[in-house]
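Dear colleague,

Thank you for sharing your sequence with our group. We've completed the structure prediction you requested, and as agreed, I am returning the results in plain text so they can be pasted directly into your records. Please verify that the sequence below matches your submission; if there's any discrepancy, let me know and we will rerun it promptly.
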Amino acid sequence: MSLPGGTDHGDFAAERPALVCARCGTPADGPPPTWTCSVEGGVRRYFCDACSRKNLRSIEGRLDSAWW
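Please find the predicted C-alpha cells below.
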C-alpha cells in the first residue's frame, strides 16, 4: 500500500535518522519509548533514561539542557 505521493510506508521508516542522546551521546536501540523529548530553541532534543533521571528536577523546572 502506498501513501499519497507514491511513498511506501516502509520507506518512510527507513528515512528517519537514528536517535542519539543530546547529553551523553548514547544511541537509541530502536524507538526509545522511555526517553525524554525537549524542544529548545525550536529544536527537538532527546535524552536517554539515565540523563533524564539524573537531571529530573532541572527538566521539570523547564531549564534548557545547556544549564544542566
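Summary note from our side: Residues 11-60 form one domain.

Kind regards,
the structure core
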